[in-house]
Specification:
The protein has one domain: DNAb Helicase, Chain A (Orthogonal Bundle). The protein is built from six helices and no strands. The protein is globular, with a radius of gyration of 12 Å.
């Protein structure tokens, strides 16, 4: 996986959503799936959005099955991919 600036920004956005679904209403007003340059990131954003919009929790555990069945995890290196999304979050987040 690339550590390029845009890729890290995409990872941080996805990680933030996975850690706190309450951020989605604000993020969805600014960011659409088309804003993601990475196809796997775009697909993951769509899956997160669908879960949240349907009233389901979107976190690494609940998305695991769908992520593995679509091949997104394999495409980016398996479980390490999910860990990278979480690591991309800023060190300081409001509580």
């Amino acid at each position: 996986m690339s550590d390029s600036g845009p890729n890290r920004v995409e990872q941080a956005i996805l990680g933030a959503l996975l850690m706190d679904n309450r951020r989605y209403p604000v993020i969805e007003q600014i960011i659409t799936p088309d804003h993601f340059a990475s196809r796997p990131h775009r697909k993951l954003y769509e899956m997160i959005a669908q879960c949240i919009e349907n009233g389901r929790l979107a976190d690494p555990v609940t998305l695991w099955r769908e992520l593995t069945s679509t091949g997104i995890l394999d495409e980016y290196g398996g479980p390490k991919y999910m860990a990278e999304l979480i690591k991309a979050l800023p060190a300081c987040t409001p509580s």
